[in-house]
Amino acid sequence: MGDYMNNIRLKKYLIFLTVALSVLAVGYLVIGWYLSELFQDGYTRWKESAYLLRGVDPLDIVMRRHDFISEIGKIPKTAATMPWTYVLNNLFSPGFLPWAIAKPITIFIYFFVQLLACIAIYKYLLKKISADKKYIIWFAIAAFLASYAILSGLKWGNNALVVSALLVIAICMDKDKHPFLVGLCLGFSMIKPQMAFLFFIPFLIDKRFKIIFTGAAVVLTGWIIASILANTNPLVMLLQNYQQGTGLPETSRYVYNGLFDFLILKGLSVSYVLLPQMFLFTALSLFLSYKYRNANQLALFSIPAVFSSMWMYSHAFDLQIVNVVVLTIIFLLYLKKDISMKMFFTGCLLMCSVLLPIPQQWYESSSLIPLFQRCIFLIALAYVLINAKQEQNKTVLQKG
Fold first, then answer.
1. Where are the beta strands (DSSP E) in 183-321?
2. Among 71-75, 93-97, 262-266, 279-283, whose mean pLDDT is lowest?
């Protein structure tokens, strides 16, 4: 009787949240579409690709070392990305087309890849969850879409929306049947390495070398092509772009520079904070991915999903990928019967990762709010890993 009542409570709770989150998701999509007139980041990425295709290193335009082309325009001095992004981003925002044509194509692709991610989530969970409990799957999809990151991403035209979707597709896709497709998703997600790089680690620990090599080949190919077109040494190109990226927060406080961001506010150099922070979270990702290598896929990829929000700089539109933790908790809700704690943690995580907008101006004065948000992410991750370990041990005992 107790289990039956728990299931009834869970169903009512999730159906209510599904409706609420669906309304929120539609609101974010509509407002994001309305605000997409700005689309500043998307316009900048298009300019970079357009300049490269004309044989000009985009960083030369940024640093005003080369005259700008009138039909493309200037690139803001705050622009920064990796060399391979200049090439790979043509798939999502084609620099070989005029901006008037490329912009609607880019917006369409942003929506389309989000749809593909939802389909991937549905197909993945359908294999794990019985057909009579599809309401859990619909809740998962609504939770993924009800992210302030979507509104922010559409407003600024940031390709973080593409990266989040590609990573979710890579996580949910059958890695035995489609290693090259997974690798392609992983490789193209590296248009934002601060979001995607740590996701290589679970694949590496699992010895998915086809996936790793495919993803690396995509990045390397883009990097070499960018170097050839710009007539610049590839290592010099990489170093200059990295220096440009890490130098941004010193002139513009519109990013969150990871868990130790408060040290930058106290005057410490960005590089002195980012480099140790990157090594720390890479090492933690390696350790935890190895320790929980036999956990379910969602739990395993919750590690890079959370760490991607705090190992380098990030914005509000980079946080949709953290919803992998939400999906994991939803899956754990299905596996376990004692749901009260899961309801609490699900609610906290949803509130902080998808319901709570973090206006960019809040980053300018204090890192306390994004720090609080990341602490909730870490608590939720710890909860996910503890429960994943319990499920793993239970499976081993049942087999024994």
1. none
2. 262-266
| Whether the Cβ atoms of residue 67 and residue 218 lie closer than 8 Å to each other | no
What is the DSSP secondary structure assignment for residue 310, as one 8-state letter?
Answer: T
Buried b (16+ CB within 10 A) or exposed e, 122-150: eebbeeebeeeeeebbbbbbbbbbbbbbb
pLDDT tens profile 84-110: 999 999 999 999 999 999 999 999 999
| pLDDT tens for each residue of 318-354 | 888 888 887 787 777 666 655 555 655 666 665 555 5
Distance (Å) of CA 232 to CA 46, 223, 235, 240, 361: 20, 11, 9, 11, 36
Q: Provide Rg for the chain, Cα atoms.
A: 21
Alpha-carbon span 330 to 14, nearest angstrom: 9
Closest CA to 199 of 350, 308, 44, 296: 308
How open is the CA angle 188-190-195, to the nearest 5 degrees?
130
End-to-end, the C-alpha distance of the chain in Å comes to 29
The pLDDT assigned to 264 comes to: 77
Q: How far is it, in rounded angstroms, from Cα 323 to Cα 228?
A: 38
Burial of 95 per CB tally in 10 Å (0-12, 13-18, 19+): buried
What gap in Å lies between CA 201 and CA 197, rounded to an integer? 8
